[in-house]
Every structure is written in C-alpha cells, then in structure tokens.
Write a structure and sequence with these properties.
The chain has 325 residues and is α/β, with parallel strands linked by helices. Helix content is 37%, strand content 26%. Helix 2 runs antiparallel to helix 10. The longest helix has 17 residues.
C-alpha cells in the first residue's frame, strides 16, 4: 500500500543579495535591528517549539485552553468541507489539535522555514489520510500570492484562514492593518462561509508579559541568540554569541514587548569589508510583540475589510481568539 504524500510548493526562494542588503542596513542603523524572520531557520523553529512548552510562556496553552473550553461555539464558525490555510504553521501541531473537532478537506500549511515544515507535513499526512495536505514555503509577511494550481483550490471551497499563536504581534499596527487586508482578500476568494480565526495576546501587567519572554531556563535567550548564527551564515559576519545577552522588556507607551541582544562589552563585528562598533550595553533590536485590547483589535479587523467579528477569551482575559468574516 502506497503511503499518501503531501504536496509541496516552495515559493520562498531566499534572495541572498536582498537579505544581505537588508541585514547590512539593519546593522548600520543608529539602533541596530534584525528582522524576526531570520529567527526561523531549522534550529530557531525547534527552539520556538520548546518555548511554547515553558510554564512562563502562557500564549500557546491559553489559546489551546480557549479552543478546548469553548470548542462547540468556536468550531460552529468553521465552514464545512473547507480548505484551511494556516499561516506560520511551523510544526502544524496547533491545527492538528483542531482536527479532533473539525477536519478540512484540504489543509494548506504556510511557513518560511521550508525544511522544518516539510518534515512535519509528512507525519501529519500519514496520520490524516482523509485530508489533502499541502505545504507552501512562503514569506507571507510580504505576499499572499499562491501558485496558480493551488489558487484554484482556494476558490473552489469555503476557506478558513488560521493565524494562531499571537504571531500578528510581530507587525506594528500599520503593518498589521496591511497584512490583515491581504488576509481579508484571501478569505473573499473562497466560497460562502469563509473567514479567519486568529489568536491575539492582550495587554496585561508588565511582569507577566516580561516573564513570558525571559524564561528561567534561558530557552528564549537561546532562540534570540541563535539569530546571530543565522546572520553569520548569511552575511559572513563574525558575531560571537558569547559576547551577547538576551533582554526583553515591555514598552508601555508602544504596548509591545521588545526583544534585544545586548553587548556584554565593547566589541566590533566585521563582515565583507565592513564593520560595526558596539559599546558595552548597546543593543540590537530583534523583535517586537505588540499587545492589543479587545476593542482596538476589533476595530482593526473592521478596518481591514472584515464585516463580522466574534471573540472568546480565557477566564483571566490574558488572550483572545477572534473569528472574522
């Protein structure tokens, strides 16, 4: 008996020249920055999965708690015989847990970490032979244009877009608006009943937020530091991770967690005939994670082109799941 294999499209062709230019520009800014997309090589993806298991990191388990405790209400909004498109699918475990209540006819997993996604899709397909499993390697932060063959599938059935784990927080409010407009347009391509399920981390006390991004075991620190190794491989730079330490703090004014890498001493990083001097305690800004209120995020969904919204929260109102159509 032949084992069913997932279909895979790799539309994410790393443009090395563009990546190098973006990295150099970020490193030479007065406040040095790196895009969080560079976190997700194979090692980074494994480390992020480990982060979701940490007791300090509440978003993943709180999201699952909402799905579990309010399953009937939430799954009532899922269209039947639908194509699911999960953005930032990673190991596909979040969607796989939902299969016990609802199953798509086709599951499309989208992620920038192509090799990591491909490995997990094979296992998912083996366990769900009744579902057509499709993988797409894509940097969806810039485009939601799918291969023509797959685009036809997305218009043939109701479409359920899934963006779980509060990953939207990596976008600033303007970027989030543009991104959600693209998702709304994607949903409009599907048959009646199409919509979006999205997980959003809510504003809360600073101590809870900061502990979620600075765990006692140092897994988040390893995740943050690993980006320097990725930069070395792309840029040919000579970052030494031992010279840097992880920092996470909540910026109340901007309503966001900021992750930084902080220099432990005065140092110089070199690459391709260029260099950047860092003073002790100077930082590289690697990630933002914006936090929302229910009211502000509902408004954002409406501004993005959705007309109907519904939300569910946990008992502490730390986290919310939104349905939008």
């Amino acid at each position: 008996m032949q084992i069913k294999q997932p279909l895979f499209f790799d539309t994410y062709k790393e443009n090395k020249d563009a990546d190098i230019q973006a990295l150099i520009e970020g490193l030479l800014c007065p406040q040095a920055t790196l895009s969080p997309k560079y976190f997700y090589d194979e090692m980074g993806s494994v480390l992020f999965d480990a982060i979701t298991l940490l007791p300090e990191y509440y978003p993943t388990r709180t999201e699952l708690e909402i799905f579990t405790q309010q399953a009937s209400e939430i799954h009532a909004h899922f269209p039947k015989q639908a194509t699911w498109v999960e953005l930032g699918a990673g190991s596909c475990q979040k969607a796989a847990q939902l299969f016990t209540h609802s199953k798509p006819s086709t599951y499309v997993a989208v992620d920038i970490s192509v090799d990591y996604l491909s490995q997990h899709l094979k296992d998912l397909q083996a366990k769900n032979s009744d579902v057509n499993v499709v993988g797409v390697g894509m940097d969806f932060s810039h485009s939601l244009t799918f291969p023509e063959k797959l685009q036809q599938q997305l218009t043939a059935e109701p479409l359920l877009a899934l963006y779980l784990g509060s990953s939207l927080g990596n976008f600033n409010p303007v970027e989030a608006l543009y991104f959600l407009q693209r998702v709304a347009n994607l949903c409009k391509m599907g048959q009646p009943g199409s919509g979006l399920i999205i997980g959003i981390d809510l504003v809360k006390d600073s101590s809870t937020l900061e502990r979620a991004y600075a765990d006692d075991l140092g897994v988040t620190a390893a995740f943050n530091l690993n980006v320097l190794r990725r930069v070395n491989s792309l840029l040919g730079s000579d970052f030494d991770v031992r010279d840097w330490q992880h920092s996470a703090r909540f910026n109340v004014q901007e309503s966001r967690i900021e992750m930084h890498l902080q220099a432990k001493k005065n140092l110089t990083v070199q690459w391709q005939g260029q260099q950047r001097h860092f003073k002790q305690d100077e930082t590289i800004h690697t990630e933002n994670s914006y936090k929302w209120s229910i009211q502000k995020f509902t408004t954002l969904l409406i501004q993005s082109g959705f007309t109907n919204t519904r939300h569910w929260t946990d008992q502490k109102s730390h986290y919310a799941l939104f349905w939008a159509s």
